[in-house]
Design brief:
Number of domains: 1
CATH topology: Four Helix Bundle (Hemerythrin (Met), subunit A)
Number of helices: 5
Order of helices and strands: HHHHH
Amino acid sequence: MTLGELAAVPTPDPGVRLSRERLWDEGTRPRAPHDPGGRGYTPRQQAAGRRLIEVHDLIRAELAQLRGLLADLESGVLGAAAARDRLHTLVLRRAGTPTGGYCQAFCRLVVLHHHREDTDVFPGLRRFDPRLGAVVDRLEAEHTALHGLVDRIDRVLVEQPLDPARLRAAVDLLTDALLSHLSYEEHELVEPLARLWG
């Protein structure tokens, strides 16, 4: 068994905000207690943190695709038929309108990912290290806030006619909050996950 430093590197928060609105105050986020330096981790221990980052990277990539698609539709560079064709190259596919269908599919991915964390991962972390309670509480609260934003996007999508400016504003806020949340979660949980599943 070979021990090594954590290979899973949390993704930094880009720090750029597209919206003036905020879902939460990032300065009030609690920090997880981390194991003192000098501890090595097996590849098996490091797997959970790597998987977390890989799933988050998929969400980030899909968010970038969604934003690109919205920009192309708004600018007229891409028509509806071409947008539908481009949707078929993405991981998440859904029939229907290019913007609405893809937004709904992306939002479902985010909600399902958070549901799994809330029901499977977080309870295990709480039992393993009660000192993680404040971080887990905060992550769960952020999940709830993000789900509220997903609901907001859904409401905008069912309005007729669709208001592109309102949709853009909601997607901008989702982008800001989601990228910040994913980075925070990785920074706080990669090392504790290695200890938990060690």
